Amino acid sequence: MAPARRLAPVAAVAAAALLALAAPRLLDRGTLNDVWNVAFAVILASSWNILGGFAGQVSLGYSAFIGIGAYTTVLLAMKGVNPYLTLPLGALLAALFSVAIGTPTFRLRGPYFTIATIGVGEAVRVFASGVRFTGGSSGVRMPAGAFDFDLNFAAMALLAVAVVALSALLSRSAFGSALAAIRQDIDAAEALGIDATRFKLAAHAISAALVALAGGLYAINFQYISPGSVFDFRLSLSIVLMPIVGGVGTVAGPVLGALIFSYLQIKLLSVPSLRDSYLFLYGGVLIVVMLFEPKGLVGVWRRLSRAVRGRVPSHA
Amino acid sequence: MNRGTLPGFPRAPLPLRSRGTRTRGLVRDLPAVLLNSLFAAGLYATMSYGLAVIYGVMRIINLAHAGVMMLAAYTTLALSTRFGLDPFLSLFAVVPLFFALGVAFHRLVVRRLPRTTAAASMESLLLLFGVWLVLQNLAYAIWTGDTQSILTPYTMKSVELLGVRVGVPSVLVFCVSALSLVVLQLVLKRSWLGKAIRAVTQNRDAALLSGVDADRISAVAFGIGTAFAAVAGTMMSTLYAFTPDFGRSFLLKAFCIIVLGGMESVAGVALGAAVLALVENALAVYTTVPTSFQDAVSFTLLVVVLVALPQGLPALFTRRTRRGIPA
Questions:
Q1: 3-state secondary structure chain A
Q2: What whole-number distance in Å separates Cα of residue A231 and Cα of residue B258?
Q3: Labelling B229: which of A86, A95, A271, B305 has CA 20 to 30 A away?
Q4: Torsion over CA of A250, A254, A255 and A261, rounded to 10 degrees?
Q5: Could you report how far apart the first and last alpha carbons of chain B are, in Å?
Q6: CA–CA distance, B171 with B235 (Å, rounded to integer)
Q7: Cβ A114–B122 below 8 Å, yes or no?
């Protein structure tokens, strides 16, 4: 491979990271907030896509991992630990939890797995609202102290760049090929000697850990969390919708979906009458995408470019 | 007939405890546990069969099922407030209406999905999930998010059966459930339509070769599944208070039941329903598991079954892997 082609992605990642670090100097606080939301959405969508897209295991229980990351950070911060130091622990706990729930639920295939993950999310939410250390429905608050938005922004933006870079790397690696084989035909993949359960568990753990990191940063930024906010089913739902709109199983799709979704969310929240019809919107999007282009915007793009390229020789 | 929002209305089934205070005597509470389980199982089986028939004929997991149950509960509410129609009598209007809706929905939307014979497709699952969300939003727009309930003259009445006091609505619900399942069983076993449904369930291609119009049978099956969801929803509206989000925990229960009992037979569904109902009731009476954790019971049961006896789950796994091998 030519060195220029090898260096181009590295340069792109470095440029994106520099841009993320320079953003606080260039943009005003309101715009930064929007960019923060986009970065958060990109992390969630791209991480989910590692299991849901590359490996084809659609999970509707990802709010559990956000919640684990967020609660680890807040509960330890209340004990006096620096919140940023708690992030790796939250990621580790989320990865362990993902293995614990993946071991039984990965026995289920395709849609059955999806329904079981609705159950996981629901069970976690019910549990979190019932036990005392989560603060019940009233939630828990970060200890009062100096809050540095720029630091939080930088961490979130860098994490987003890292997650997208990781997802691009994974899609080209042997690991990614194994996941793709599992998605296309799990029986054939196992016949070729791929330990499907182990690969699925690994993909689940990686994406859970990344989502938990984002959850911890979310908690640091918002200072207050409750089971109703971080274990919400709607959160799991939007995590799934972003890659689906953009294009499941591609690197660009989830990023595209996250951009569109955060834009819509910002718009929706500013129009009160639309705020009540977000379910209508989400549901409508799902119906339209599934009926007309299950591969999302990336699928539309591929179809268009194929049509453009295909027509020239055939009609020439 | 009274109606409207009643904040104090019990969310759990009406009091079905045995008389006396909180004694945990196994024998003493046994009749209550068994009777309550039986009554709950009737409703659960009706609710789950709708999912099972649609899965059997079309290999589609109908997540909109929960939305249909919710919509039926609100339709029953509307009929009872507008026309003073008794919830159980309103079944005569609700069932044909939802059957027609199901058939129409199949004709307009479901048929356009790419057909898969081997396994349920992710596309159909997500599409119907989208339909569920739209139905929820529809209910929020029409009836707002307030908790609603239907109060009839007999809602608070109870009768004594085998020394256990049982709410009258529970008894009626059980009778309707049992009746609907018996009628269904007769239709499936005796009529041409039932034979055709079973044929398509067993092997769609072979059914097509024998002259069964599988597409039409699919539409009818979707109608039947929707109608069963509506029956369940109407009956639940007499037992529970409901909101537009109503149905999610019941959907999980229904899924647990069809995994336990197998997707394709009425008997299997009934068995799965009985097991879940028994576990739930026994846990509520004999242990101190808080009632707020009740919703987690079905999921835990599902996980336990999956870990402990994966081969014990009949149709779902063995058949699917066999079908996975291209013929």
A1: CCHHHHHHHHHHHHHHHHHHHHHHHHCCHHHHHHHHHHHHHHHHHHHHHHHHHHCCCCCCCCHHHHHHHHHHHHHHHHCCCCHHHHHHHHHHHHHHHHHHHHHHHCCCCHHHHHHHHHHHHHHHHHHHHHCCCCCHHHCEECCCCCCCHHHHHHHHHHHHHHHHHHHHHHHHCHHHHHHHHHHHCHHHHHHCCCCHHHHHHHHHHHHHHHHHHHHHHHHHHHCEECHHHHCCHHHHHHHHHHHHHHCCCCCHHHHHHHHHHHHHHHHHHHCHHHHCCHHHHHHHHHHHHHHHCCCHHHHHHHHHHHHHHHHHHHHC
A2: 27
A3: B305
A4: 150
A5: 60
A6: 11
A7: yes
Residue A286 located in a structural domain: no
Is A131 inside any structural domain? yes
Structure tokens that stand for A268 in this block:
């929706």
- CA nearest B256 in A: which residue? A116
Quote the strand ranges of B214-322, DSSP E: none
Angle between the N-to-C axes of helices A233-246 and A63-78, in degrees from 0 to 180, rounded to the nearest 10: 130
Q: Token digits for A166?
A: 């990781």
Q: Do B109 and A287 touch (CB under 8 A)?
A: yes
Q: For residue A3, tell me if it sits in a domain.
A: no
DSSP category for residue B153: T
Query: How big is the A-B interface in CB pairs under 8 Å?
Result: 134
Query: Complex ipTM, two decimals?
Result: 0.74
> Which two tokens mark A245?
């709109």
Query: Do B255 and A283 make contact, defined as CB atoms within 8 angstroms?
Result: no
pLDDT 10s digit of each residue in chain B, 327 long? 333 333 333 444 444 444 444 445 667 777 778 888 888 888 888 888 888 888 878 878 888 888 899 999 899 888 888 887 888 888 888 899 999 999 998 888 888 776 655 566 777 888 888 888 888 888 888 887 778 887 777 777 777 777 777 777 888 888 888 888 888 888 888 888 888 888 887 777 788 888 778 788 888 888 999 999 999 989 888 888 888 887 777 887 888 887 777 666 777 788 888 888 888 888 877 777 666 677 677 777 777 776 665 544 454 444 444 444 333
**pTM score:** 0.78
| Residue B268 parent element (H or E) | helix B266-286
Buried b or exposed e, range A286-312, using 16+ CB within 10 angstroms: bbebbbebbbbbbbebeeeeeeeeeee
How many domains does chain A fold into?
Answer: 1
Report how far residue A46's alpha carbon sits from residue B295's, in angstroms, rounded to the nearest whole number. Answer: 31
Domain at B32-320: CATH architecture: Orthogonal Bundle (1.10)
Task: State whether A119 and B293 contact (CB < 8 Å).
Answer: no
Residue A302 placed within a domain: no
List the single residue in B with minimal CA-CA distance to A278: B137
Which chain B residue is nearest to residue A285, measuring alpha carbons? B130
Does the CA dihedral A103-A105-A111-A115 come out positive or negative?
Answer: negative
Burial (CB count <10 Å: 0-12, 13-18, 19+), residue B109: middle
Give the CATH number, domain containing residue A76: 1.10.3470
CA B221 to chain CA mean position, Å = 15
Place of tokens 């407030």: B81
